[in-house]
Amino acid sequence: MSWLDEGALFSQVGAFLNEDIGRGDITTQSTVMRSQSAKGRFIAKEAMVVCGLEAAEAVFSTLDSQQQIEAFVSDGDEVEAGKVIARTTGFADVLLAGERLALNLMQRLSGIATLTRRYVEAVEGTGAVIVDTRKTTPGLRMLEKYAVTTGGGRNHRFGLDDGVLIKDNHIALAGGVATAVGRARKAVGHLHKIEVEVSRERDLRDAVEAGADILLIDNQTPEETRRLVEVARNLRPGVLLESSGGITLENVRAYAEAGVDLVSVGALTHSARAVDISFKIQST
């Protein structure tokens, strides 16, 4: 996914603003005149990959339909500390009421995009693709997965209704890899691929023989991953292979060089640090 659903975005932003503003911004209402105008600037306080400009604009335009952001960069651009990312002019109370939410979203999404870019750069030239997971913040999955694509990664499943991924608990409850794959093959449509999580050679062989389209090699060392990749390629050269579990910036290239097609990294969304962005407001 490399786009944002505008309707869903404004619906979420509306809920976020209700959470933050409640019955009204009593500090601003008691200190700032309603008719006072002001301008605000978003400033990068560190090097980053920018993401979330549309989300920030949605915050202000939800509060005032005439409010717009003038962006000096685009989502996906890398900027250095001190760069003015965007500016906006309007009623001061609107800028003050939306400031925190706009910053929260931009800082969070830019942090994810920045971390994703580092992972993508780390595997450059290997042919492997960095993908995300469902380990996202509840309520922010659309935005966080958008941030991953902004950073150069790709999206794995958006939700449980988006693809078949048979994991260890499914296998245990079904009674084995072959049974789980067979049931899935009969139940889903012909357009759905079936991915199976494997952590040992026997399960890998069972999954390939049962007709799995994708193998998720989970929680293995790069050396063991390379061995299992060789086994899988010998059994079926065209099978798609993915690595997951314990992937860090320090070892991601080793997993990519083991021969997998995909490397899924939960840290992209569950552990990305929010980057530092300030919003400076002045009277006009």
Word description of this protein:
With 284 residues, the chain is an alpha/beta fold. The protein has helices at residues 6-21, 26-31, 53-63, 92-122, 141-150, 168-174, 177-187, 201-210, 222-235, 252-257, 267-270; strands at 37-44, 48-49, 70-71, 78-79, 84-91, 129-131, 164-166, 194-198, 214-218, 240-244, 262-264, 277-283. It folds into two domains: 6-120 and 272-283, Quinolinate phosphoribosyl transferase, N-terminal domain (Aldehyde Oxidoreductase, domain 3, Alpha-Beta Complex), CATH 3.90.1170; 163-265, TIM Barrel (Alpha-Beta Barrel), CATH 3.20.20. 44% of the residues lie in helices and 19% in strands. The strands form three sheets. A six-stranded parallel sheet has the order 6-11-10-9-8-7. It has a four-stranded antiparallel sheet with strand order 3-5-1-12, covered by helices on one side. Helix 9 links the parallel strand 9 and strand 10 (240-244).
Q: Concise description?
A:
The chain has 284 residues and is α/β, with parallel strands linked by helices. The chain contains eleven helices and twelve strands.
